[in-house]
């Protein structure tokens, strides 16, 4: 007798368990990899010279621009499409190889021109060696997409951790061995090469590449929209540095960039795993919009429960945190951190909209959101920068709420969700975080004379207790739903 078909509830339970495993693998490996890389980074900073980082930063602008075209968007199409044949995978492999070979050749040929622009002959040599990164890209992008398509993030986790250790060892060895700026060049190459090897092994090898684009129109269109979205994203997220570098002193821009690094830690370091899992989840649910909407609410709840207290907590503890972590010479960065961190609370929700639109087969919608941002942000920054570095930071308090409102207006109908449904999810952690912030601000009036580390420890402990207590008292249902997800119930 044949086995009974799984009931919808059982299938749903299995999918929830699959998502849970994906989040645990992706987030856990990301945290481990970041810990290894940060540890190595801080040790290397103490060994290398500022000039080494200056030369490396010059090459970074070129790499970021060219990597917008490296084909990751086409690879993401494999995750999003309901059906993909082995020939299409082989064709995509061929496309990735061809595209990245062209990028490597372009970087090699243009290297002297960039070196001439920067008036640093060494930049040409650095860029030519960094062209090796493009050789690794097809062996990272394609297997990563194939694993994500199956919601298998364990292979990605192993590759991330292996790459982090390879990069950390290369960086430390190079710094101690006197490689200078070449330490910063070879460490990323070691990371990419190791990730490529482990990912290719995890998918059981890749097919022989097929250099024939016939029949790949859908992948090319999807990749084109993804690349367009990344390009517009590059424009608006880098506009502050471009405009600030023109109107602010080097000291002011240094304060701003360091404050921005602190304010973006959650979004840049801890949100990406949720982004990756969310994109794969929506791709699986693209023909069941109500289910996709429910998944969006789950991801929104998860990211808000963690992100809201982080950003608002950072805003109200900025001064003792900056003094403790960076030293008194960075004290002027504290008010900048306060403004940026409070603004980032809106961005926490905004970053969920891109993977939702892309996973549901509407990458043009996500690209459109970034296009709007690319028009609005520079215009506003040109106005607010007249008030100096605080004006530059304050612009995000206008930009992020505006972009969130526009993004929700365009994406929520795609998910068949109302604003009220989303509000019910984000309101509890937001209210708890606001209560936490208010209590910490009041308590800080009595702790202002304490040493910065003691003051920080006291405020963080108090804030954590208030936030946890509020959630248990007034948002127990939200915590219960997250706990049920964690226990596969």
From TrEMBL:
Gene Ontology cellular component annotations, sorted alphabetically: plasma membrane
Alphabetical keyword list: Cell membrane, Membrane, Transmembrane, Transmembrane helix
Top-rank taxon, per record: Bacteria
TM annotation in the entry: 53-72, 92-111, 131-148, 160-179, 185-206, 218-239, 259-283, 295-316, 336-353, 365-383, 389-409, 421-443, 455-479
Bilayer topology term: Multi-pass membrane protein
CDD domains recorded: MATE_tuaB_like
Family statement drawn from the similarity comment of this UniProt entry: Belongs to the polysaccharide synthase family.
Protein name listed in UniProt: Lipopolysaccharide biosynthesis protein
UniProt organism field: Sphingomonas lenta
């Amino acid at each position: 007798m044949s086995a009974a078909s799984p009931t919808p509830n059982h299938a749903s339970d299995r999918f929830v368990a699959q998502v849970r495993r994906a989040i645990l693998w992706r987030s856990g490996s990301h945290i481990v990899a970041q810990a290894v890389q940060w540890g190595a980074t801080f040790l290397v900073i103490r060994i290398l010279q500022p000039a080494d980082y200056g030369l490396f930063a010059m090459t970074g602008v070129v790499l970021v621009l060219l990597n917008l075209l490296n084909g990751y968007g086409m690879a993401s199409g494999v995750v999003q499409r309901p059906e993909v044949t082995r020939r299409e995978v082989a064709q995509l492999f061929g496309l990735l190889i061809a595209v990245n070979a062209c990028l490597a050749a372009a970087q090699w040929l243009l290297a002297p021109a960039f070196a001439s622009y920067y008036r640093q002959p060494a930049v040409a040599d650095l860029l030519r060696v960094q062209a090796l990164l493009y050789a690794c890209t097809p062996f990272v992008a394609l297997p990563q997409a194939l694993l994500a398509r199956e919601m298998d993030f364990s292979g990605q986790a192993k590759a991330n951790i292996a790459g982090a250790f390879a990069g950390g060892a290369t960086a430390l060895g190079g710094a101690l061995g006197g490689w200078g700026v070449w330490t910063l060049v070879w460490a990323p190459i070691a990371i990419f090469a190791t990730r490529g090897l482990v990912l290719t092994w995890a998918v059981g090898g890749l097919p022989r590449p097929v250099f024939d684009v016939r029949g790949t129109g859908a992948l090319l269109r999807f990749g084109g929209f993804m690349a367009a979205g990344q390009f517009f994203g590059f424009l608006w997220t880098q506009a502050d540095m471009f405009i600030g570098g023109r109107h602010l002193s080097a000291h002011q821009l240094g304060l701003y960039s360091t404050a921005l690094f602190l304010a973006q830690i959650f979004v840049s370091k801890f949100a990406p795993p949720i982004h990756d899992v969310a994109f794969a989840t929506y791709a699986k649910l693209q023909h069941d919009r109500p289910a996709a909407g429910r998944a969006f609410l789950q991801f929104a709840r998860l990211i808000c429960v963690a992100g809201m207290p982080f950003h608002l907590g950072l805003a109200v503890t900025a001064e003792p945190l900056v003094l403790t972590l960076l030293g008194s010479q960075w004290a002027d960065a504290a008010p900048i951190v306060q403004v940026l961190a409070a603004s980032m609370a809106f961005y926490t929700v905004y970053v969920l909209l891109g993977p939702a639109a892309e996973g549901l087969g509407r990458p043009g919608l996500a690209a459109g959101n970034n296009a709007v941002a690319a028009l609005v942000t520079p215009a506003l920054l040109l106005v607010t920068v007249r008030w100096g570095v605080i004006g530059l930071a304050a612009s995000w308090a206008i930009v992020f709420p505006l972009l969130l409102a526009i993004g929700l207006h365009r994406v929520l109908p795609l998910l068949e969700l109302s604003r009220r449904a989303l509000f019910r999810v984000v309101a509890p952690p937001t209210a708890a975080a606001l209560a936490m912030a208010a209590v910490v601000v009041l308590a800080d009036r009595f702790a202002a004379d304490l040493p910065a580390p003691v003051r920080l420890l006291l405020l963080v402990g108090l804030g954590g207790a208030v936030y946890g207590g509020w959630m248990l008292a007034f948002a127990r249902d939200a915590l219960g739903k997250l706990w049920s997800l964690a226990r596969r119930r």
